[in-house]
Amino acid sequence: MVALSALFLFGDFDAEPLLPAIHQLPEAQSRALLHTYRDAVAAKRRKAWLGFVVVAVLYALAARAADVRPGAFFAHIDNFTSYIVRILPHLTLSNFAGDMASWYWNFGKWLLLLGDTLLAAYVGTLLGAVGAFLLCFAASANLTSSRILRALARRWLEFCRTVPDIVFAMIFLIAFKSGPMAGAVALTVHTMGALGKLFAEVVENIDMKPVEGVTATGASWLQTIRFAVVPQVMQSFASYTLLRFEINVRSASVMGFIGAGGIGQEFIVAIRSFYYSDVSAMLVMIIVTVFVIDLLTERLRHRLAGAQAHR
């Protein structure tokens, strides 16, 4: 015991270290492992190159079928840049206010048309969200046992979102003639289909324990949705609806190109008439509006997501 204590205190520096010895693999086994590793790396590289070649071939075929020619793009890129230069306004510091007034000479009318675009997007988003809300529960597999009802709801939502909104607008223009109403109805139908799918997916991922609890009390199907499902999904529904409103503002601007009213209709007239400064003026108004809506809806969506995370 005394000898062990002395060894602990003063140490035996001449003794061999107590660390376990690292044994080296036999030469044949090391070569086999290294060969296996190199084969695995080579196989991974071959797969990566094969994937790259497949993507390149598909790109070439798609570009040929769609008549997309990179050579033509670079040959005529100067037309694009020259058009951008032509639509830029002539602003000077010495007469900035006067130049701005000249640039936005028709600001009042453009602002009213932009308001029409926003209202069409708002109406289309609101009515479409209501339609999606009413249909999403019937399209959810965890709430609707009837396959026929579920299939009907899903097929209708698929039809609404498969047809592009601008095609709906062209169809509704025949009925409503020109004006924002055709655009609003088109956005309503397309929004119903797009939001209906998202809403149904949210419903299918809810916690089913509250549903089972409410059902056990003898509640009806509608009462179960009201008290067990809606409280779980409303914040996600609101977040998706805000995102859709942002998308619909851009879509409503484009629908004006075909006569569905709003600032898009005036915008396409300016492009066709070569009113360069008017094109840039309206383009800036649209971009700023979309930026502001994007910022506001993003902040609201994050606040809703944060509130949902803290529940």
Task: Show the helix and strand layout.
Layout (H helix, E strand, L loop, with lengths): L1 H9 L16 H39 L4 H6 L1 H11 L8 H8 L3 H30 L10 H16 L2 H12 L3 H25 L3 H9 L4 H35 L7 H10 L3 H34 L2
Helix pairs in contact: 6-9, 6-11, 7-9, 8-9, 9-11, 10-11, 11-13, 12-13
Please give a structural write-up.
- The protein is mostly helical.
- It is built from 13 helices and no strands.
- It has helices spanning 2-10, 27-65, 70-75, 77-87, 96-103, 107-136, 147-162, 165-176, 180-204, 208-216, 221-255, 263-272, 276-309.
- α6 (107-136) packs parallel to α9 and α9 packs across α11 (221-255).
- The model is unreliable at 1-13 (pLDDT under 50).
Q: List low-pLDDT spans.
A: 1-13
- What fraction strand? under 5%
Through-space gap between termini: 64 Å
Structural class: mainly alpha
Tally the helices.
13
Q: How many strands? A: 0
Helix content: over 70%
Order of helices and strands: HHHHHHHHHHHHH
Arithmetic mean of pLDDT? 87
The major pleated sheet works out as: none
Q: Tell me, briefly, the overall form.
A: extended
CA radius of gyration: 32 Å
